[in-house]
Amino acid sequence: MMFRNVKATAFVALFCAVGGPVLAGCDEDSDSDAGASTPSTVASAHNSDPDPISGTVKITVDGRSVNVSCSGAAAGDRPVVVLLPGLGDGLDKMADFQKTLSEKGRVCSYDRLGEGASDQPNGPQTFDSTGKILTGVLDRVAGHHPVVLAGHSLGGLIAARYAPAHRDRVAGLVLMDATPSTIIADTKTVIPESATGPAADVRAQSVAVYGGDNPEKLAFQDGKVDSAGDIPVEVIQHGQPYLAALPEYGPALENAWSEGQRKWLELSSRSKPSTAANSGHYIYVDQPDIAVQAIQRVTAEAGK
């Protein structure tokens, strides 16, 4: 892959939003150790009433080893918060954020296959197959408890795709600058095939990522936004434009991303939008208080 050959921040911005720091070199330093691995254990998923996980352990889901971290204490029937990082990020990226959230409830995160300390996928993945792993993780970390999924970037897209078909267990959603549901079409429309120079590289490399040339071997699929019912949903968008820095095509990419955030409001009749005014793509790093408060609100509403 050629991502690190694209030097200017104007041209890596799209990859920060889609492919994460491993692909784009856009990581933001985070001296976090709250998610540091403790001695690993192997546990079996699909347990309706599992023993609580404390710290970071390995569980087995569908024959694959998945790295999971849980912290905080469960409070009655209050939903368990499950964090989903973006593409190219492991659970360690969200460790400080998880530590803060766990002061008021049970919070878990995990490395998807191909990320962090989890196994590599056996082959190409789809949203269905990555959703199957998510189900196994929820079985183990939440059991019969409802969950609030809080996803960043691709993690938000996966959460939003998962929730409508799993209304029996997903009680709320928080999407932090989630990848739009039409990201492939948006990119191809804004940057035409006739584009030349660096913009042509951006288009080609983006399409490669969407097609599965990424750590998770996950092939993206555009689709409509399905309803998850009337669960509480908060959609948080970045407030500091960065895609707009790409000459000629950047402003249109920024507009398409904003429209994608608005489309996510169709997930529920109780969806609410907000903007992290001083944040780039990594809202939970730039303005963690905004993300923490959104998750706490959704969790409280979902627990009623």
From TrEMBL:
Any one GO MF annotation of this record: hydrolase activity
Record-linked PROSITE patterns: PROKAR_LIPOPROTEIN (PS51257)
Region (Disordered): 28-55
Cited Pfam families: Abhydrolase_1
Signal peptide (from-to): 1-24
Domain AB hydrolase-1: 79-182
Coiled-coil regions listed: none
UniProt cross-references to Gene3D superfamilies, sorted A to Z: alpha/beta hydrolase
Protein name, per record: Alpha/beta hydrolase
Biased composition regions of type Polar residues, renumbered to the chain: 35-47
Keyword field: Hydrolase, Signal
